[in-house]
């Protein structure tokens, strides 16, 4: 019987990213998908700053940025009039090395991830379906159906369900998927557009109960169009064409659509599963949570699921941590998923609500507020943090301890740019490390050297005073780069005690 450390079901961005992080850590992963190959339609569009930060561990960040398109601004239209232009180019310049909104269609994203896996000698097994699985004391036995109809049994230490909203893994482990479905029917289309001004930017237009979002790919005249289908036409989506959808908001943009490359309709769900882990099976991405596309969070959230789980699986598979470490995956990611569903639900409800008052707020109040508020650098930065997922933290996780300055255990480490390099350069290593801003104590230096844990000391700068980090404190970072322990005293014994309490073996 074939064996692997982790069997990954589903080769969308979540499954592919999980396979990459595991393979980079020396964990064998087998990834299957019942489809014929990577997606050919650009579903998710935005790659958020936090995803790019974590992609540095996979040597992917710069490739994605180069292949994607930095959206210069969002324009707001109402009732056929241009009401506001919101610059997006440097909203997060004090927050991240990636302070922009990057558009990189999911189909291209998937193909890049597949290529990266192939470079590591891992091929996606397309047209291969999970039929069932059984859990044993030390492994999972999965029954697969190959492209030629042949059935194969595979033994894996763990199983990762990245198989979408209709997840077979989720159904078999009996995990619920509480939530609901919005009544609105959405359409999405890839189109060629002329006449739009300013060209190359994003546009959102409201016209009474109709709205449309226009996103630029970075290719001349080519855009993604997203909107809602109203009235009785929404009852029979299988018969709809682009000509059938409402064009009031589209016409309000004063543009001309000269070609429709792709058109589809879909309904939006908001659900979170009961169990992100059950035994040796895990749920990630859409198999664990689905929500409205507001804010471009879906694909990024799945990739961060993969980042969170991969280092924990690697530690347990290699015998460096107890199986109980894996319980923190559900604790950390389920809490974030529920918060995200609530947040996107409120935004989605605002955009799609019907009635005179809702129309008045969208077409009159919101554009005025956006135009005034976005002139404030603090407001721009706040909104960037909210959308970019750089505010995501795990403070309530059992793995998070301490506080030094304004940084708590569980936080994303503040990004601190330097003259030659930033403090995120060292985070490319998928391993435990310590960062100190100022001077490290001698016993801490000796302890890190003894145990093979990288210690990075940054000379204190006046600019650090407003970033939240404390001078001479020690920040122990997990392999996924989140702060595990923030010790204001920078003591070696505090770090040593952390590893003992969590049962994580030190390298030496």
From TrEMBL:
Leader peptide range in chain numbering: none
Cofactors required: FAD
Keywords (A to Z) from UniProt: FAD, Flavoprotein, Monooxygenase, Oxidoreductase
Keyword Lipid metabolism set for record: no
Domain of life: Bacteria
Gene3D superfamilies, per database record: 3.30.70.2450, FAD/NAD(P)-binding domain
Stretches assigned to the FAD-binding domain: 3-343
GO molecular function: monooxygenase activity
Protein name: FAD-dependent monooxygenase
